[in-house]
Amino acid sequence: MHLPSPGGAAMIERARAVAGAGGVDGTIASGLIPEAIDCTVSEALVLGLLKQGVRKFLAVFGHGSTDIAEVLRVYAGAGALSVHAFRNEVAMAHAATALRWQYGEQVAVVTSIGPGALQAMAGSLAAASNGVGVWHIYGDETTHDEGFNMQQIPKHQQGLYGQLTAVMGESYVLHTPEALRTALRRGSIRVNHPHFAGPFYLLLPINVQPKTIRGLRLGSLPDPFAPPPTVVADDSTLAVAIDLVHRHRRIVIKAGGGTRRFAAEIRALADAVDGVVVLSPGSLGVLRDDDPRNVHVGGSKGSYSGNAAMEGADLLIAVGTRSVCQADCSGIGYPSVEAVININGDLSDAAHYNRTVMLPGDIGKVAAKLADALSRRRPPEAAEWLAANEKNKARWREIRAEATGCPPLYDSVWRRPVLVQPAALEVILDMARDAGATCLFDAGDVQANGFQLARDDEPMQTITETGASYMGFGVSALVASGIAERPQRVVAITGDGSFMMNPQVLIDGIEHGVRGTIVMLDNRRMAAISSLQLEQYGIEFGTSDGVEIDYVALAGAVRRIRALSGGDTRASLRAALADALAYDGLSFVHVPVYFGSDARAGLGAYGKWNVGNWVDEVQQAYRRQDL
Q: What is the pTM of this model?
């Protein structure tokens, strides 16, 4: 039996008015609908999100979200928004993260109660770890508490999903419909936070969604949060930082992911302090690859030159970094540093190290203020420090050349010579750049080798999700390019393990019109962990399998996918990539790669971190220093 939409003709009229006026504000100004309306909570939420600039809703609907689904159907039909259906909530969360991260578009994830919400929340770890603001809208148990709702947590306790999501980020359970205004305001602050945004979880009890809000004033729905930049107001603190710069000779700037929007300011600061810049995987391109002050990525899996700069520096200027364990080798990456200047919008991150002068606020404004002050008081010459770093950078170029120039090596799994990952990645990265494509890296060995090899000249040429290192992120993120207003050509580089976490991208990619390429480097294992096991314990365990899969046939089974074998040589890989990149749709290239004891199979690790049997060594080193 078909029932009429609860909102009826009035909701359809409002949807058409919003679409015709180009948004809620335009509708209010034009007087097309009354300023105060009666509508369901679900429609009020959609109107509130539209006012926040959300025009795209990524959805896996379930019984916990049928009411909001009906509202979205009506508004999508009127052209006020678009709805994009997915097959897996984790992949959907990744695509939403990429849509905001790569394209800057406001987006909402909509799913049901129970397993769907838990999967979407799990996927939101990537957004939470990388400071990406995404709206997450989930169903929730009914407020009447008439008994367990199917798929709620089976425990005699109230509000458990709200507690779970609050642990991951910021959460609001809309128990009372009239509290929607506050929920939207808090959500807007979270997803638009200027220093470290993140997911906001708005939980809608099943029985609250269809409730009517009487006299909702559309003008009362909050506007997007847009705070002005802030800078350090205390000149005496700035003077202490300037004094530190003048008293030190070996200065390193650690540019974290928060510096991506401030490339010019970071370059100017590096000149002003006469120092070098160590990048994070998330800040590739903040300095051009060939910039003499760019010594590349540093950390436990960084570069030879980046780690050498960290080890030799006597002053650290940390900018926009959370100092995660792999970025600073679990706290032992700067053994010679005597003091720290920390520029960060978050006070906790700014206070991470001892002996720190904190310069909190907008990274671009604060860095520019410090650089301008230093330009009036020339810092000491650091020619010897720059020369040493240039020598280390030259050595790093040699290491990369040795690995990328390695010929195919015999592999016991493939029973023939196949390409090593650095050689394959160099071909992929070079051809992607020539094609003007953005590279999305999945977690694992491909990610580590990828950010060690990347030669970016501007931010966001390479997107590598190292905040959570979520397997399956790279291929799932590809789908964002089929949804974005101004899509880019994209190449998702993945391993066999990461790909199989979210293989439904083959279907979603076609469904959403992705024009991009998946390149799978296949060594039939989780090579990053196998390598770690071998380095720490001399033997691998539980990180490989004996299952043979024809991935070209698997991808080719989805109609309209161009599935290709990359072969075992650089020439065959180039030919396959040329075909794939020329294809006007989604293409897939499978590349068997070597795994074994030959050192040329990877680019090495130049730091330690607090895992496995390194724990005692790392923790003793940490206790010996005062930083």
A: 0.95
